Amino acid sequence: MSSVLEQRHALLPGRFAYLMGLYAENYHRLARQFEPQSLQRGSYLSSVDDGLDLRLDVVECHRYTMELHLTYCMADRDTGGLAPSAWLRMYRDAHVAEATHCHPGKRLWHELGPFPPAQTLFQHRMRMASFLNRWLEYLAEQGHSRGTLVPTAPATLPHCA
């Protein structure tokens, strides 16, 4: 019986391995779709025929990491912030991308408290990575890509603060 259980664990990835796989898939989706590694710091707008303009901000660009902000240019009725919205960190050396937070106006400690248990933090990161993965897939289906990005001054972005 123990050999059956050992084989089961060998076939199924652990939760941490699954999360790292999502991070890697998100990195490759971002790199292929928007090529942020070739963009300069600044704001970019993507308009396709779906009526929802997408904004990509290259916030910081370092040798091994990039900080990005991805959002639609529409305000959330309740918070006034842009929604949906994701703050992203791309690790160019490790080829992984994580969503550091996905809710406008809320930081991680607002949601989870100052010292969340490891399992709570892991589940939150899993939800954010899954959200980002599905959102990037949807954006690709809508036609958003590097080819539709246009450099834009932040003041000229519609409905964007």
Main traits of this protein?
161 residues; six-stranded antiparallel sheet; 37% helix; globular; disordered C terminus
Structure in words:
The radius of gyration is 18 Å and the shape is globular. The relative contact order is 0.20. It has helices at residues 2-11, 15-33, 108-112, 118-142, and strands at 42-46, 54-61, 65-72, 85-91, 96-101, 149-152. It contains 4 helices and 6 strands. Mean pLDDT is 81; it is low at 104-109 and 156-161. It has 161 residues and is α+β, with helices and mostly antiparallel strands. The protein has one domain. α2 (15-33) packs parallel to α4. It has a 6-stranded antiparallel β-sheet. The N and C termini lie far apart (60 Å).
Protein topology:
Blueprint: H1 2-11, H2 15-33, E1 42-46, E2 54-61, E3 65-72, E4 85-91, E5 96-101, H3 108-112, H4 118-142, E6 149-152
Antiparallel strand pairs: 1-2, 1-6, 2-3, 3-4, 4-5
Helix pairs in contact: 2-4
Largest sheet: 6 strands, antiparallel
Radius of gyration: 18 Å
Order of helices and strands: HHEEEEEHHE
Number of helices: 4
Principal-axes shape call: globular
State the low-pLDDT regions, or none. 104-109, 156-161
Order of strands in the sheet with the most strands?
5-4-3-2-1-6
Please give the number of β-strands. 6
Q: How many domain units?
A: 1
User: In percent terms, what proportion of residues is strand?
Assistant: 15-25%
How far apart are the termini? 60 Å
Helix percent band? 25-40%
User: How confident is the prediction overall: mean pLDDT?
Assistant: 81
Structural class by SSE content: alpha+beta
